[in-house]
Each structure stands twice: as structure tokens, then as C-alpha cells.
Amino acid sequence: RRRFRQVMQRLLGSFARRSSSMMHASASSLAARQSSTGVPVASPDTIRDQTHRRASVRAFAAQAGPVVQPGPPPPVALVSFTRKGAAKTSDPTDPDAHEVGIVEGGQWLWPVPRSKYPRGMTQLIAALHDAGGADGLSPVDALERERVGDPIPLEHVDLLAPIPNPPSVVCVGKNYLEHVGEVDTHLPGISKTAPPELPIIFTKAPTAVTGPGGGIVFPRNVTDQVDYEGELGVVIGKRGKAIAAEDAFDHVFGYTIVNDVTARDVQKRHQQWYLGKSFDGFAPCGPWIVPKRALVDTEGGADPQRLLIGTVVNGERRQGSDTSKMIFDIRTLIETVSRCMTLRPGDIIATGTPAGVGAGMDPKGWLKVGDVCEVTVSGIGTLSNPVVDWE
Q1: pLDDT in tens, 187-213
Q2: What does the pLDDT look like over 116-172, one tens digit per residue?
Q3: Measured on CA atoms in the order 282, 287, 293, 297, is the torsion positive or negative?
């Protein structure tokens, strides 16, 4: 036993020295990258602090832990909806086929006259953002501005995706360190063993968007590896291009929840991720949009980098983390994306998923028809969607 302890001490000492050397080299590399690209990257201290969790990635989903709770409903939230009993349309994205409104305290819905915002939610977002400026309207001011007539109970309506037809759905891959080792995409420059040097950006088709309660459509005969990815969604409120990181939140209207559903085998077969992530129903969003000043974080402030995030499948905890653990924060993501494309009111940026996806489990935890997948972000709520057959 004494000799065994001595051998283990030597091995651990050797590992610690190699790790220290690697981290010092990493610090120089990171500094060089930031100097050459101008894009902030995760610091060596952040990586060192989180690297020890890599070894437990594959077991993460199976470990016992608390299910993330949504907390109290937000004081104000924006929704798109249809009234229960109303005739359904074949195209719910048509602004004439649904209404928009403001929910107060998670219970009462104040419909906004369609004549005021004929283009629907994106027009309402832009108007409220302009009225509030960079800081945004307070919840009270937002209500006073749009409250007309009498409210209706929230249970009297069916919620749709808050933006049924967003201009763009921009996504971020491998943005939580624990998730880096869960999925191998075989693409150049994307590693299972190291965090990305720059944000990995891809898109989903707007036609993939569905709302709370909408079906995640299982495309039989195309895939048998349907996976979930619970994410915080950032909703843009102000048009912008080449936005500096320090100005990023001037362009943010609020926040929602996104489930970046993915067909893993299709994702790998086509190399590009677009098809594997863009099947109909593969972008659940909702249940609403919480304006940035109405957000309540875990410390009572309004910081989107201090929110709990988790996913449950059929009542089983699969994911549990918090948004402070993003490798690239929201400011960096907005700066990076806006260098290449103009961001518009209603654009959604899905900021990446933590560990615990089905691909990282052993055996795999793929979704199947009949499952119910729930993503919760504290301060926003819970987005629940059933998995349904492709008819």
C-alpha cells in the first residue's frame, strides 16, 4: 500500500507539472489570439477552473441533482397567441392569423390591437425598444404604454412561439466547457478535447420554430438520433452591424428559451449542421419574451449571465448548469455575429447548451415519440414540448 501511494503521488505530481506548463502555454496562445482577432476569449483561469469537470462529462446526465426551477413568473412578458376555440390557420406565422400581447405577472394577458402593430411581434419589439432606449422600458412603463381595454386570463389562450417567424435564428456550438466533449462532429477545427478558439456559429431555418406545447416532429426514416439542447435565447431589439462588445446590450430587447433540437446522425452526414438542426419543429421557442429590465437573475439583479438553466425529459433531469459558465459571453457573441451580418429586431441568438445532452450519455439518451422535453431558465420560465410522429 505504501508503494502504491508513492507511485500515485509521483503520477499526480507529474500530471500537475504538465498541466501547469500547458496552461502557461495556453495563456500565451490566448493572448496572441485576442490580439490578432480582437475577440475576447476565455481566460486561462476560466479554463483551469472548469477543466476538472471534463472527466465527468459522460456521466453528468445520469448524476442525481436538483431540477432547475423557473422561479416566480416575470412581471412582464411578450407573447404571440391564438384564442382557445378560434379557427386555426394552416400558417400560424401569418401576422393576421394570431395576436400579440403583454402578460402581467404570468396570469393576465393584455392583447395589443392588431391595427397598432400589423407586422406582429417584430414590430412590437422594435417599438418598445425604441421607446425605452438603450436601458429599455421598465415593466411598469411597458404595461402603461400598451395596456388597452380589459385583460383576459392567460389560460384562455394558446401560446405560440413568441416570434413565430423570426428573421434569423443564429446558434452557438460548444459554448459550455462541459459540453465540448459530448459531441464529435468530425469537422476541421472543432475538437472534443479543447474549447473552441472562437465562437462556433451556425443557423437554423426559421421554419423549424414552434411554440410551447408544439410538437418536436420525429422525422422517421431520416434519423433515429433526435437530441435536445436547452439554451438561453437572446432577442435583438435594435438593428445593428459591427456592434462593439461594450455596446452589445444596447441592441438586446430581452430573453427567451430555445431548444436547439438536433438529428445527430444527419448533422454528421452532411458536415454542415443546417439540415440536422432545421427539421420542422426542431426549434421550440418560448414560452414568451422577457424584456431585459424585467429579468430577475439568481442574485436579484437583471444579469443574463447569472441564470440557472436545465432540461428534463419525462421528469428525469438531464441538464443543469448556469449561464455564467458560457465560454463566450453574450457581449462577445453579439460582437462576433454582427461583424458578419446585420442584426435586426426579432433575430434570436441561441447561446449554446450545457452538458447533459443525449449524445453524451451512455447508453445514449435520444428522444423518442411520446417523450416530453422541458427546458427551464430561471427568471424566464419553462418551455415544454412533446415529441410527436412525423405524419
Answers
A1: 555 555 678 889 999 999 999 999 999
A2: 999 999 999 999 999 998 888 899 999 999 998 999 999 999 999 999 999 999 999
A3: negative
C-alpha distances in angstroms, 159 versus 49, 78, 89, 102? 41, 11, 14, 12
Instruction: Supply the pLDDT for residue 178.
Output: 83
Rounded CA separation 20/204 (Å): 40
Query: Do the strands 216-218 and 381-389 form a parallel or antiparallel pair, or are they unpaired?
Result: parallel
Q: What is the pTM of this model?
A: 0.83
| pLDDT digits 0-9 by tens, 333-349 | 999 999 999 999 999 99
pLDDT digits (tens, 9 = 90+) for 257-287: 999 999 999 988 877 789 999 999 999 999 9
Neighbours of 93 (CB within 10 A): 18
Surface-to-core class of residue 163, CB atoms within 10 Å of its CB (0-12 exposed, 13-18 middle, 19+ buried):
buried
Ramachandran region, residue 259 (left: φ > 0; alpha: ψ -120 to 50; beta: rest): beta
| Alpha carbon 36 to chain centroid, angstroms | 29
Quote the CA–CA distance of 224 and 168 in Å, as a whole number.
27
Measure the CA–CA gap between 382 and 391, rounded to whole angstroms: 27
Task: Annotate 153-210 with three-state secondary structure.
Answer: EHHHEEECCCCCCCCCEEEEECCEHHHHCCCCCCCCCCCCCCCCCCCEEEEECHHHEE
Do the strands 262-263 and 226-227 form a parallel or antiparallel pair, or are they unpaired?
Answer: antiparallel
Exposed/middle/buried for residue 170 (C-beta within 10 Å: 0-12, 13-18, 19+) = buried
Residue type, position 252, single letter:
V
pLDDT, average across residues 318-328: 96
Return the SS3 of 325. Answer: helix
